[in-house]
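Hi team, as promised in this morning's meeting, here are the two structures we talked about. I've kept the exact order from the run log so nobody has to guess. The first one is mostly here for context; it's the second one we should focus on when we meet again. Sequence first, then the predicted structure tokens.
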Amino acid sequence: MRILAVETSTLAGGAAIVDGERLLGEYTLNIRTTHSERLMAAVDRLLQDCGWELGDLEGVAVAIGPGSFTGLRIGVSTVKGLALALGIPVVAVPTLDALAARLPFAAHPVCPVLDARKGEVYACLYHWAEGTMVRDWEYLALAPEALCERILGPVILVGDALDALGDLFVARLGGRARLAPAGRRLPSAATVGALGHALLLAGQRVDPAALTPLYLRPSEAELRRRRALLVH
């Protein structure tokens, strides 16, 4: 199945094209250019380099968060428009799932940790059992210190929060903490595509009109709106 995968959960993001279990191409940037400026250009370049047209796509997968509110809205809106225009199925891939899947068959539990700003991180915990990735926690938004209190054994940490908080995790967790290599820490559209392919085969499709990002807390705009309603 020919699938376009989109990842815009963090500053690092891009797109990938997979054909079944085969990755044909991936475009990733980790710079401060907004996803609205680069996402469709990346999709166009990938299609051109693969010798495909939009009409050749048979499905689309998107990382739905948690993550950057603006980035997720751009990714979800782009995928929703493509799915509706092309009449192809869409699947939603939680960003923390896709991050954990970057370290398949890890000997220790894997904990993806994303910068949630305002002194918090987004996190979850996973382990591998008989070749299958298993999620152990609900998706969380919490303080880094509170996350450390939940981690009771050896763990592999992955995610963009390690750039700013890696030293804190090492200090708090000591020998229990293993930091993933820098090249494996960031979200990958290719991994979103691989998980999306499995979801499509399992029939776990989402109505494009109902596709929404996974937010674990209100955005700043929503909080301002609520405060304004309380004032009035």
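And here is the second protein, the one for discussion:
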Amino acid sequence: MFVSAKSELDMRPMFVLGCPRSGTTLVGGFLEPSQWGNAVETHFITKYAQEGAQVDLSKPDVFKGLASKIIRERPIMQWGIDWDLDALFRETEPKTYASMVDKICMRRSEKLGFSRWADKTPTFSFQVPLLKELFPKAKYIFIYRDGRDVANSLLERNWGPNNIWSAANYWKNCCEALLKAEQMLDPKSYLSIRYEKLLSEPEVYLRELLSFLEYSAPEDQIDQMASQVRSNNMNKWKTTLSKSSIRIFEQTAGDVLRKLGYPTGAPLEPLGAIPQAFYKAHDRLVWAKFMFHQNVIDGIRIKCFGKQPFNE
């Protein structure tokens, strides 16, 4: 088991989860006035969970060996913290992986003046059961956005799905994982947000969000936060996606669109096996090219030429 013996209330992080380009950055930023502070992407928490559960973290060398791997992760390097692993070992009690994660993430929060920490790593949407096991008292914000707008935005980036079928499949899987997570969590521990409703009535949904965050904001602060919302940032897919792209998306993920209340055309037969195989091969080829550039070319630029991690 990953569960720490430390007071559960002491380890009560916030996870802001949703498919990339669904509004996690916007909502994660709204956490800043609260005790959790603005959410960041850590990426490492689930990556090292199995190793953290299998090793004896009460041994200083083992503890510092795992901690060294974590603080060398590119997102953690961005925090600009001068790590003292001996102090980290002494201050982490009990010597569990959950406590180590909490202590590392709290270093950033303490640096910025927050009493808790919040994470918005998109891939954690698929790993809520593990997060729940690590942090039984964690809170969650789930964000859902029309997948066609998500696909429209994702296809403009070089780090995401590389064709409309891959984007639809990824969005569908992500939303299904979150909907499943809602069924396993205490209803008081999570808040579900529809991106379009937040954009349409920001003050209403910001008040609901701030209440969930246990933060009472004055009206002028809510007005200021609402001003950050771009009310026209929805339904762009209607004019930017081609008819064939919309059809492929709805063939792939129309059932989840309808489940979430987004209108679609008439239900369509799923895309055939041959087109799916083509899209899958295309996505893997383009992704391999991107990863080579990120891990090899960017790695050289970071080590030898001073490039900042994730400085894109």
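Starting points for discussion:
The CA atoms of residues 17 and 243 lie 30 Å apart.
Confidence is low (pLDDT under 50) at residues 1-9.
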